[in-house]
């Protein structure tokens, strides 16, 4: 049995184990193992895992608890898992829709596992699974379909693209390779003739596109990105920025890959790589007083100068029109 399949089966067994034991306080482990169709050793391993499961906080009084009397077990705290999992009609339909959408997502891995799960839920949902539902992918689905069509037809594209890191719009001729979804966003991976390299273009930042008559011909040296760790993968050659972050800005450590996070009194010192300092300047200014730049000095000066210019602009009184 594959690891993913075994994990899924174990999760289903754990979800039903607590209500089963609640209904049979003091049951012998051997009897429970026979009822559940597992070995006694597997049952003991499941119980050990349940001991570290529970409600957020995961402290005393939050985790599932049980008492043993020889070879007998009794659940003493169920953490709310007091009945077998039963989906409401709305929940079942939501799962069917989500899995269907996931199965159609470009570049998705483990499609077989998704289709097996979908088949099981559709079977359990019965006629409900055939309810008419309109599903739309995030972003501009027409844009994504047009990009997928260019890939299928093997045609080059001329695009107008907005680069957020530099806050600029440019025109490029590209050779599309594939469309994929990463982190809920659609990307076109293509050979950029201007950069002479493979680039990722966010579909929602392509302002215009024209399919050319010439075929897409990525050169032999074109190498696809490894996106297993996400779109942005920091490297040592990128600028390293260190910020002093207040409590309200700590969320950035969950959304951006950081090289270092350490306490500094009531604040945190956070170091992360950025594509360029212009992006970092706009990013820091958007966070307001929750963040102070520690280094590099160039970024410190850029943020200070732009903040001062903004304050000066507010200090100039607005012109008063005639008659007021």
From TrEMBL:
InterPro entries: CBASS_pafABC_assoc_protein, PafC-like, PafC_HTH, WCX_dom, WYL_dom. The keyword rRNA processing does not apply. Residues 9-122 form the PafC HTH domain. Residues 144-208 form the WYL domain. It holds the Pfam family WYL. The keyword Nucleus does not apply. This is Proteasome accessory factor C. GO terms for cellular component: proteasome complex. Residues 241-311 form the WCX domain. Keywords: Proteasome. The lineage of its organism: Bacteria, Bacillati, Actinomycetota, Actinomycetes, Micromonosporales.
């Amino acid at each position: 049995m594959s690891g993913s399949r075994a994990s899924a089966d174990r999760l289903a067994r754990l979800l039903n184990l607590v209500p089963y034991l609640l209904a049979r306080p003091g049951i012998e482990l051997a009897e429970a193992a026979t009822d559940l169709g597992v070995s006694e050793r597997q049952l003991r391993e499941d119980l050990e895992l349940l001991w570290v499961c529970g409600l957020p906080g995961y402290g005393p009084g939050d985790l599932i608890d049980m008492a043993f009397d020889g070879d007998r077990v009794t659940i003493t705290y169920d953490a709310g898992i007091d009945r077998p999992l039963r989906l409401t009609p709305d929940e079942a339909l939501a799962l069917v829709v989500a899995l269907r959408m996931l199965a159609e997502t470009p570049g998705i891995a483990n499609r077989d596992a998704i289709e097996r799960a979908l088949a099981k839920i559709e079977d359990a949902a019965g006629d409900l699974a055939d309810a008419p539902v309109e599903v739309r992918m995030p972003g501009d689905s027409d844009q994504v379909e047009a990009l997928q069509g260019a890939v299928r037809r093997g045609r080059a594209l001329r695009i107008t693209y907005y680069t957020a890191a530099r806050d600029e719009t440019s025109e490029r001729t590209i050779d599309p390779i594939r469309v994929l979804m990463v982190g809920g966003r659609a990307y076109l991976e293509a050979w950029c003739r201007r950069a002479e390299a493979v680039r990722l273009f966010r579909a929602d930042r392509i302002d215009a596109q024209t399919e050319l008559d010439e075929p897409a011909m990525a050169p032999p040296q074109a190498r696809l990105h490894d996106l297993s760790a996400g779109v942005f993968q920091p490297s040592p050659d990128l600028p390293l920025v260190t910020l002093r972050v207040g409590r309200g800005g700590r969320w950035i450590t969950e959304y951006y890959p950081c090289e270092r996070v350490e306490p500094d009194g009531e604040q945190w010192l956070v170091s992360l790589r950025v594509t360029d300092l212009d992006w970092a300047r706009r990013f820091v200014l958007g966070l307001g007083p929750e963040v102070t730049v520690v280094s590099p000095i160039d970024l410190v000066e850029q943020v200070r100068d732009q903040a001062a210019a903004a304050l000066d602009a507010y200090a100039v009184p607005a012109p008063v029109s005639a008659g007021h």
